[in-house]
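Action item from last meeting closed. Structure (469 res):
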């Protein structure tokens, strides 16, 4: 017997800015990513520069037919991708959409439908139009709520009946750590007050709820999810002060899910606002809009962290934006992300018990420096380390399902090599498919199947029965 239910949505996840390329083709305007050559936390430049790998990425824009065929060969039931907002509204504030951009996603959907693959679409995946960032100050401006609603209404109408599963904002809780990446705010994090950051997040939360309302009005069959970063936080010792610190840090993660699911700000967050002197403008209309709650909760999961009330006495976690201190019981990836499969089971149970909403794992994967070698059928990668990582996490997913968690699906990040969001490298590879492109921009862009390609195909074909406990 398998733990995974029939109809489970196996697949992979991507973002437009990390795969599409063609940054100035098809009428597309600039997004914030087009001026971020150095990764998620690097300051932007004045315009696109040749060292920005995302400008070309892996050229999914011109290779989507081949890539989707490879996903189909693995047996994908779903494919998560994002619509580049600036491909639809080049500056972000236009009234009329760019038809070439809409038509591109029509063609992508045509290919997915040909192969029976369910689309799972993110409306905003760290891709705020640059015009909105520079002319309006990004999500600090309340005006962006209406611009986003207009964009959402446009694509909901255009793809009505073709896309059933939607996500509003990718990792919405990331604004607090990465204001430009996640909020289009072109001011260094150190120069922003917490009031400014939470005001920007509030605008995104209202926009997310408004998009949810619009989606349900246009098509009651639409299923709308929020998307948050999931990080289990363990007290570094049994000291109650460490456990309380872990709980309080966890509240920072839970808050955005709580608002999306329950339709109002939780008491613990309002207390934090009071005690820290954080003030944000929340109108009565905002409160009404927030009552439009999501149908499911989706999340990314890569690592766990430990927390301490006296963190200076411990080694600080490296390689991630989450913070925390190092867990001495866990190993870490090449980029310092601690590997914790059991943490995924803990997250699934915590979220299910907290919200009683269907869950969807929409990102989970291992970034590694793969080496292309000659195999019996051509160039390949022996990525047993990736197979082990995914296998061990999926075994824990099966355990969570046995625990009673309702889970819609699982999409790995990313099924094909893409430009890393955090480091803007190609060498930090996640895919089952190797793409011949290097950090210096060289390469043929040819696609090669890694060893994990056949492994994941077998996992999907057996609905998880091939996993090794």
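Sequence:
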């Amino acid at each position: 017997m398998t733990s995974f239910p029939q109809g489970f949505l196996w697949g992979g996840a991507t973002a437009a800015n990390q795969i599409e390329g063609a940054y100035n083709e098809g009428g597309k305007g600039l997004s914030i990513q087009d001026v971020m050559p150095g990764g998620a936390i690097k300051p932007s430049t004045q315009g696109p520069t040749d060292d920005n790998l995302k400008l070309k990425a892996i050229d999914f824009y011109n290779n989507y037919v081949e890539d989707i065929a490879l996903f189909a060969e693995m047996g994908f039931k779903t494919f998560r991708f994002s619509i580049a907002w600036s491909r639809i509204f080049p500056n972000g504030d236009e009234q009329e959409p760019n038809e070439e951009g809409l038509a591109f996603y029509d063609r992508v959907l045509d290919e997915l439908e040909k192969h029976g693959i369910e689309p799972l679409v993110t409306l905003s995946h760290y891709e705020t139009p640059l015009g909105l960032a520079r002319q309006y100050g990004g999500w600090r401006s309340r005006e962006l709520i209406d611009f986003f609603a207009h964009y959402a209404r446009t694509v909901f109408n255009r793809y009505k009946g073709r896309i059933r599963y939607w996500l509003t904002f990718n990792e919405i809780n990331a604004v607090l750590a990465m204001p430009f990446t996640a909020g289009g705010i072109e001011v260094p994090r150190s120069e922003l007050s917490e009031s400014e950051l939470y005001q920007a997040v509030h605008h995104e939360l209202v926009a997310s709820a408004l998009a949810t309302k619009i989606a349900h009005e246009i098509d009651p069959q639409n299923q709308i999810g929020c998307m948050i970063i999931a990080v289990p936080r363990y007290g570094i010792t049994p000291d109650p002060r460490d456990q309380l610190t872990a709980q309080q840090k966890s509240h920072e993660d839970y808050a955005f899910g709580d608002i999306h699911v329950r339709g109002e700000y939780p008491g613990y967050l309002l207390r934090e606002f009071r005690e820290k002197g954080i003030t944000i403008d929340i109108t009565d209309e905002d409160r009404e809009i927030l009552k439009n709650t999501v149908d499911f909760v989706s999340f990314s999961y890569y690592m766990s962290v430990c927390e301490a009330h006296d963190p200076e006495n411990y080694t600080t976690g490296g390689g991630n934006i989450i913070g925390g201190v190092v867990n001495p019981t866990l190993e870490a990836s090449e980029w310092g992300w601690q590997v914790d499969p059991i943490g995924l089971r803990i997250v699934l149970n915590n979220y299910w018990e907290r919200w009683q909403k269907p869950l969807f794992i929409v990102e989970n994967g291992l970034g590694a420096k793969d080496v292309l070698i000659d195999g019996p059928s051509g160039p390949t990668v022996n990525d047993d380390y990736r197979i082990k990582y995914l296998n061990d996490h999926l075994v824990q997913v099966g355990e969570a399902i046995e625990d009673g968690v309702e889970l819609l699906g699982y999409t790995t990040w990313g099924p094909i090599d893409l430009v890393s969001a955090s480091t803007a490298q190609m060498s930090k590879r996640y895919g089952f498919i190797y793409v011949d492109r290097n950090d210096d921009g060289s390469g043929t862009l040819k696609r090669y199947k890694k060893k994990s390609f056949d492994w994941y195909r077998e996992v999907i074909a057996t609905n998880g029965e091939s996993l090794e406990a």
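Note appended to the action item: The domain at 9-461 is CATH 3.20.20.80 (TIM Barrel).
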